[in-house]
Amino acid sequence: MENGKKAFLPPDGLELVLASGSPRRSDLLKQIGLENFLSDAADVDETVKKPEVPKKYAARIALEKAETVKRRHPSRFVLAADTVVTCGTRILDKPRSKVQAEKCLRRLSGRRHNVLGAFVVIGENNQYVKRLVISSVTFKRLDEQEISNYLASEEWIGKAGGYAIQGRGAAFIKKIQGSYSNVVGLPIHEVYNVLRGLGFNYKEYNR
Asked: For position 126, which CATH number holds?
């Protein structure tokens, strides 16, 4: 790696599969030196089952993603995650239109909301660990121009809750309690510790 930096690779014969096509989750793994992994998005039905509460919904979807991809890669470690934005007990989905995105922004404006990050790691011998990480995010009160500009940027597309904290949406955040990376899409500290706990031992190397 350039500038003499060290990175990490899995032990020989052990590869990690990220059950997601999210570039944000991939970038977070690369940020801690994990570059030798595959991305294989799981195609699961993400419909909320009534009367499913947000925590159970996030945990169920993460597990279904992990199990789906593990069947395709039985000899590899699999990491799957689901990020849910909640305002009270209401789940704010990824908006499918500008109208929906505007509703999300107005609902979040001037309020605190929670970001639930559920993830599952399935290791060797189908050992698995499930975790749920909760981050609290407080928005500033948005004015009409801010809402209009953000909608025009189209940054909200594909984002849970209709905003990206790692992008222009950062200007709206007054306060975060908990994991920042969880809000981006993956609680990287917790993921790292779970992988280590399941025997995914990293090797330092220079190149």
From this structure: 3.90.950.10
Cβ atoms of residues 68 and 61 within 8 Å: no
Tokens of 163: 């905003």
In the set 40, 43, 45, 82, the catalytic residue is 82
Element (H, E) at 132: strand 128-139
> How many domains is the chain partitioned into structurally?
1
Each residue's pLDDT, cut to its tens digit, for the chain (207 residues) gives 334 434 444 444 458 999 999 999 999 999 988 877 899 999 899 999 888 999 999 999 999 999 999 999 998 899 999 999 999 889 998 999 999 999 999 999 999 999 999 999 998 788 999 999 999 999 999 999 999 999 999 999 999 999 999 999 999 999 999 999 999 999 999 999 999 888 886 654 333
Q: How far is CA 10 from CA 33, 35, 51, 67, 159, in A?
A: 11, 9, 41, 21, 30
What tokens appear for 96 in the block? 């499918």
Determine whether 82 is an active site residue.
Answer: yes
CB 195 within 8 A of CB 121: yes
Stated pTM of the model: 0.88
DSSP alpha helix (H) spans, 36-96 = 54-72
Copy the structure tokens of residue 108: 């979040």
Tell me the C-alpha distance between 43 and 60, whole Å.
14
Domain span at residue 85 reads 2-205
